[in-house]
Each structure stands twice: as structure tokens, then as C-alpha cells.
Predict the 3D structure of the following.
Amino acid sequence: MPRVLIVAHHFPPTGTGGVGRALGWARHLPDLGWDVTILAATPTPNWPQDEALTRQIHANVTVHRVASADPRPDSFRGLGHRELSFLWYRPALKFARALLAKEKFDVMLATSPPPTSLKLAAQLGQEFKLPWVADFRDPWAVREPGPWCRRRRRVYTKLAKAIIAVNPTLAAHLKESLNRKVTVVHNGFEPDEILTNVDRVPRRAVFLGTLPALDTMAPFFKALARGNGEFLHVGHPSTDLAAVVAAEGLKKVEQAGYLPRTEALRKAATGSVFVTALAPDLNLTLPTKVFDYIGLGGPILHLGDKGATTEFIAQHKLGESVSPLQVAAIATTLERIWSRPDLYSEDLKYQFERRRQAEWTAAILMDVVKGRAT
């Protein structure tokens, strides 16, 4: 049985969206014939925690957690504060060297962000002559990197045997920047997390996860108010949301707050449209929540008119994208979605199950092990 060491700084019980990718590998790769070991950071204080996620980890997976040498008090760590994940590098390198000195692995897989995971894998790969695969969930750390970060990205991935990206737009960017072949493996959803026969509330718009800057959402709230809609936010609460929506005339608003994943999906499933919104400079990003929305089976409204998310939704006929600034256009789009929800295709839904994505990942890893990767 081939052995893979997965370097994933963020991993359950941390409950943020980025952990799902590595969790999917930890759940499904063992059943696809892989012996899996995870190297992760200990949970960051003040970040959301979801202990239920750890129950999805396959019983045969070994998880090693290494604490980060972050000197700040707990109150200055976590959501809303800059993550000093680069401080994880030295303690993780020390631990991994000891691990690789006594255990043999066939391949290593490092997922980023943070890019510290790529730096760690690059160093270990050189020292132990261990082939490795670089996985990009974002171009570097959410936004497209500037010249210095692009150089570091090339240095870190120079000796990687394969490169994976989470969406075609990001893959094209990396291919051009790194002059390398890049394979797309999407994020996905777990069917057993999705409830069936949930009553959808008419004209309820749901946003799952952390809201973007509320001033960018104001036109959407105004459009939703015009259509006598309601808004449900399931995720880390915003203290300013009530005031912003009131200023735009929206009266029906609920903040469910952060919930364990199963409860969050159960709550979100009541929506009749699922909303995404990104800052204008995040054109290479396809949020994990899009795949949750695919699993939930409702139409998606993306507040953005270009970039990876817009292209993905259009390609798979999952909903509509609209300029986030045009109140009238948003209102018209909402009415169109609500009047004809059957327009939006679920035909391709099951190709986005996490097990299917794990199968693609397993094939890439095996190509590397067999020396077939280019």
C-alpha cells in the first residue's frame, strides 16, 4: 500500500472552510488504497472549532499536530488577526525530519494556503529525496501575489513533481506564471452532510461563511428589500450587519452565527437562493461554499461579474452572476431565479462529491510514485 504524507496546516477540529480539502483526503484516500499520515498545526486559539469534523477522518489515518511558535497571547490570534503561520515552519520542520528519519513515505502532498506548507514540503523533499505534489487552494494567500511572492512561489514549487489547483482559472494563472502543467482538482461536498426533503423558504437568500465588507453588500441588501426578500447569514457574526441592512430597508434578517458544519448546512438548506460575494481583486478564487451550495441543490447568485466564480457558475449552469453595484440588475436577477428555479442544472452535481475529487488526487499521486508525472 503506497504511503502519503499530507502537509495541511489547517485541519479539523479547526472549523473554517479551508479544512475541507485535506479532510476529504483523510476520509477517502484510505478506501482508495492509500496509507495516509497528516501533518497539521494545532488548532489556532480563537478560531472556530468543530469537533464533529474529526469523526470524518478515516480510522486508519494518523494525524500529527505540531504547535506553532506564535508569541502572541491567545486574544490576538485567530479570525480578524493576521495569521503568523510562517512561525509554524521551524517546529514543523523539526518534527517532520524526525518522522521521515524513521518512517518511509512514497510521496508527499502539501496544500496551501498558508504557503508555509509548500516551503516545508520543498525543504523535506530535497533533504529526503521524497517526491511531492503542490496543491493550491488560492494563488498564494487568497489574493494574486505580487512579484516577490511570485518568485517565492516559483522557488517553493520548482522541484514539485506535480501541481494541483482548485479551479480552472487559478490553474491557468499558475500554468502561465510557473510555466508548468497544472491539474484541476475541485473542492467538493459530502452527500451524507446534505439533508433531503428540507422545506425551502420562499425569497430567502442565504450566505454561508464569513461575510465580505458590508459596504460592498449594501446594493444587494437594497435589491433584496425591493423584492420583499429575507436574508439569513450562517457564519461568524458581523456586529454591523443589523445597522447596514436596516439602512437599506431590509427588515427580515437573521444571523445564525457560527454553527458546527452539519447544523450550518441544515440551517442553510432552507434558502431559495444561495449567495456568494468576493472582493474585486479575488478573481482567481472559487469559494468552498460554492460546493456546499451545489450539494444543497439550490440556485446560486454570485455578486461579481468576472473571475473564477463567475466562470464556474456559468459553465455548470448553477445560477447567475451579476455586478455587485447594480441594484436594479440584482433585483431583476433575483426575480428571475425565484420565478424559474428549474432553469439551473444539477446534472453535473455528483462529479463534485469529495470522493470523486479524492479519486483524481489519488491518480495524480500514483503517477508521481510511478514516475509518470510530468
About this structure: The chain has two domains: 3-188+353-369, 191-350. The mean pLDDT is 93.
